[in-house]
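Dear H.,

Thanks for agreeing to be a second pair of eyes. The structure we're designing against is below in token form, covering all 257 positions.
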């Protein structure tokens, strides 16, 4: 079993991981010759079944497995993955590969940064991130430095400082039989399709209505003072019609004396 890839778009990968982590603790990542499938199935709440093209995230991509279509199934803790990807924002290059240490499968993320400095030559850092929510790995988040910092004979002259940072995330390799019974839920064919505005526009509109509800429907706390919590009697109404009009309105239940 082998997987190695260089990351083309670290921002997209990081934002995708951040969105998934808000819905669940782990993601089932299925890798094969054709696509990347991200699946989050929490005990409660919304499920995610996302399929991405390989070149939307990775630039070079190598995968090998005994399973048909070179399929590899991984269960990955999202919080450590997000922290590792976030540290690669300013990296000049980043790569990821599946490896093993002490018989524990790991996703190894290596980033390379280049900075002009006059202090020390290249530095190499290796860290291992453990996640307590993923058996059989126990203990809190920990970072173990395996390599020394800096060169034993530093030269103090201006040069491009190249720093290699490797972060290792424990994962669980899922057998094909384990995931064979997991299927995307079948949804009925919709009667209508509603194309919503961009998420940024929706966010701006929602925030304005939230502020309006706070300013016009103050509630009181146990000390008799106005609280910032929105009133439970305020509702945001969404409506649309066949002419392409999409309407947001606020409804408030009037108290009857």
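And this is the sequence the design step returned. I haven't edited it by hand at all.
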């Amino acid at each position: 079993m082998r997987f190695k890839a260089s990351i083309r778009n670290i921002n997209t990968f990081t934002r995708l991981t951040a969105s998934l982590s808000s819905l669940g603790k782990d993601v089932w990542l299925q890798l094969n010759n054709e696509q990347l499938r991200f699946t989050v199935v929490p005990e409660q709440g919304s499920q995610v079944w996302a399929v991405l093209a390989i070149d939307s995230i990775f630039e070079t991509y190598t995968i090998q497995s005994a399973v048909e279509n070179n399929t590899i199934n991984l269960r990955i803790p999202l919080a450590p993955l997000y922290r590792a990807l976030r540290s690669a924002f300013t990296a000049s290059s980043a790569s990821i590969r599946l490896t093993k240490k002490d018989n524990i499968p790991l996703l190894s993320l290596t980033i390379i940064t280049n900075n002009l400095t006059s202090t020390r030559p290249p530095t190499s850092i290796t860290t291992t991130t453990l996640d307590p929510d993923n058996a059989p790995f126990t203990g809190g988040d920990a970072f173990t430095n395996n390599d020394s910092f800096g060169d034993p004979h530093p030269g103090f002259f201006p040069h491009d400082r190249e720093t290699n940072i490797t972060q290792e995330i424990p994962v669980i390799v899922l057998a094909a039989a384990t995931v064979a019974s997991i299927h995307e839920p079948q949804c009925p064919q919709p009667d209508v399709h509603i194309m919503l505005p961009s998420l940024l526009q929706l966010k701006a509109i929602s925030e304005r209505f939230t502020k309006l509800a706070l300013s016009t429907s103050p509630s009181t706390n146990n000390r008799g003072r106005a609280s910032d919590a929105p009133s439970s009697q305020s509702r945001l109404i969404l409506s649309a019609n066949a002419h392409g009009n999409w309407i947001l309105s606020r409804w408030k239940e009037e108290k009857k004396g």
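Two observations from my side: The radius of gyration is 24 Å. Helices lie at 10-21, 78-86, 176-179, 199-216.

Warmly,
E.
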